[in-house]
Amino acid sequence: MSAAVEMTGSRTSAKRVVTLDQAVVEIMSDSGEGAQKCGQSFGSIAARMGNGVWTVEIIPAEIQPPARSIAGASGNRIRIGSKRVTNGGDEADLVIAFNEQVLLGRVNAGELKPGCIILLESMWAESSDGKIASQYRETLGRLLAEGYRVHEVPMESECRKLVSDPRKGKNMFVLGMLCNLYSLDMDLAREQIAFIFGKKADKIIKSNVALLEAGCAWAEQNLEFGYRLPAVRATEPQLVINGNTAIGLGVLASGMDICAMYPITPATSASHYLSDVFERAGGIVHQAEDEIAACAFAIGSSYAGKVAVTITSGPGYSLKQEGIGLAVMAEIPLVVVNVQRGGPSTGQPTKAEQSDLLTAMFGSHGDAPKVVMATSTIEDCFYSMITARRIAEAFNMVVVVLSDASLATAQQPFPRPQFSADWVAPPIDQNPVPEGAKPYDWDPVTGLSRRFVPGQPNGMHTLTGLAHDRSSRVAYDGETNEQGMHARSLKLAALQKMLAPPKVFGAEEGDLLVVGWGSTRGAIEESVEKMCAEGYKVSSLHLTFLQPMPGGIKEILQRFKQVITIEGNWSDRPEDPLIDDSNRRYSALAMLLRARYLVDVDCWSEIRGRPIKPSSICAVLRKRLVPEGTRS
Amino acid sequence: MSAASVCLHHLMEERRTLEDYQGGVPRWCKGCGDNAILAAMQRLCRDEGLRPEKTVFVSGIGCSSRLPHYMRTYGFHGIHGRALPIAEGIKLTRPDLHVFVNTGDGDCCSIGAAHWIHAIRYNMNLTVMLHDNHIYGLTKKQASPTSPLGTKSNTTPRGSYLDAMSPLTVTLGVQNASFVAQAVDWIPESLFQIMTAAFRHRGLSFVRILQRCPEFVGNMFEPWVHDPQRMLMLTHEDGIQISPALQKIYRNQVVHDPLDINRAREIASSEDPIPVGILYRNPAVPCYEDLRRAGMLRTADSIQGSLEAEFDKFTVWP
User: Fold this and answer.
1) Helix, strand, or coil here: A602?
2) CB contact under 8 A, B93 and A305
3) Same-domain status, A336 and A398
């Protein structure tokens, strides 16, 4: 990363302002102290200045964790850049902590860069509780010994000069410090405060602006360093939302009427958001009694009307499998969203993982072909819902959309979508069905048939999950069973012919191709850029459609000397003594690519519950590209 | 509906025959009580003038759940235990459709028990028939939750171990129950009367129909079939009135007010005599679809309007 030092004449103090092209900042507090609001505001101000932004929530698993505990750490990671930022980046450059305990969790998890700057609330040193004071001193000593650059900040006492309850408002003081440290526009910051407290009294806005200004002034006088991330002001409006909100907005935009769901982390916030906005637009979020009922409800709704959606996460997805098979068999269009989390079983509910790909493709008993897509950016979460609805409807198929916990709560600005009437589902057909038409009149080439919706005269038939013929009569013979199976499978091929080949990121040929899917896109592409800048011939390919896979992939794979997938799921480690070619379990996508294209695809994966870092990927790629023994 | 539109509606109405509602040839066993339920349904559709394209029979899995195949309406033969949530999805999406549910004692009271409880609570305008023959038929004779204690079956060769559950008392114990009735397949006239009342009730009408399975538990209801005195006929001016012909056979009658839930629970607990009629009916219980549907028309314009308003909340302007 380039860094240039400048002395600014405009400032009152002799502050050294360094120009950066990106920075990772974390704000950590006990839950309820407002670190989330502070971090999101910081991101929004930077976004308005034209900086690239990616924010990630750091959420405790418990609702009311004890104060000053490692497990209770709540906060926000914000990565800002001169240009577009596509992922949460590597370890943090600067951390602001409201107490030393919430900070420790991040230190122990290795989330801080060596020499990371830490701005630490200093009030604990004078705590009347001797235990707290000694914990503070002990931690401070450890941090200094480990080489972190710690600045003690009397946040509480500075805030007390302005407000009686500093616990509410300390976050705005911190925001002010951050605006100073990263040279953000204070007018925009004041506007941001007016925006977030917009519904409240003027007095509250004024008091928060005062705290903001105090934080800024304190940093200006007491901290001798500062940064600048030059950016070009955005020319078009940007939406700043997280992945789950984007899914909710996408459902609204797609014209779907019904979302049936059952609460499950980390998918539920999409339904929370929908519950708030959907009904004002005539849609309904139905919270069913369980995941199975949610799926069955959505199927009933789709059968009788427009395509419906059910939103869930891993365990819920498992429970829906029989229902999904019914929708496949009866050719009822359905959109299923799986915001993946750590598995198997209850696993790691709040953590990101990409372990449900194969279950999405091959889940449900019998041969149950369905479409599987993966979202790879926040913007993609929005548009995927519209695409999924359209495919489900055009092909009378189940479309599974895979997102994950890291997209669910991450925010990244993207251009405000321009509404198109094509997004919206057409009204349901209630015209009479032509005499003699059959409900499963499968086209011999595409496998497609026209769906009959209740209410259509002449279309009466009994739909069934049993094998059936073109008239939907139960089929007991092998011939008819095979005809239905054939048609349902052909639909995937028909869709595949409409998909554009995926685009290679970087050069069309080279030494190494990285293939990925889902939320790893930003980190993979950043790594490719970095490796290319170092002179390596590396490119990447990111797949949106996993089933069917678009054409042209084999040709792309063949233009590279090596191919590797980077995935957030398990793969056996070749260095383990028992692991060899005959038993290694590959990552999901690697296994699929090897099977389909007969190319020797390797894989590297990590399931540490956090987004894969670009530096981890670069390290893996360097190892693959530099022969053993020649490394310096 | 205004009087004028009712009038117009009747003008448009075509007269249909039983044949107009007859689908495939039933494949139930000879003497199976499901045949009586099917006949009652076809008669109900005809007499109520239901348009076949506006009528959907939803079922789960089991002998009972084959019924939709034998109707010439829309039908949805779903998966085991899930008929109710499928029917709820249909009804919430399309309140204009007449939605019937056919389910069995295994389908409803065992694998689908959670949905049963919650369906009662939602109280959507559905007509639910529990074909209760006290045995699993399609999988060939296993004890079901309603099998009487000691029932010999393939999974309980020395007799079943648990007391039977009562679908009536369970249903009457759930908040928002709005229509609970019991019928038997061997009194077709009464079955039809009860089903008609169930259909006309606005809310979830739950009708448990005691249904004979001659193949696997041929003697289950024989004592009652042969002794009309062991049937307790519930009558009320707001409930079912028994025809003079039936009154002569079934003399054991009791006047029961369908709004009296405490008495309904007592009657529901009676296994002998078998009560027949409406145990409980309360038209005042709200329907979920009425609570949830705002009746707002969804057009591209209205969707765009709400979408832009949401975008405004999250937009960072340059």
Assistant:
1) strand
2) yes
3) yes
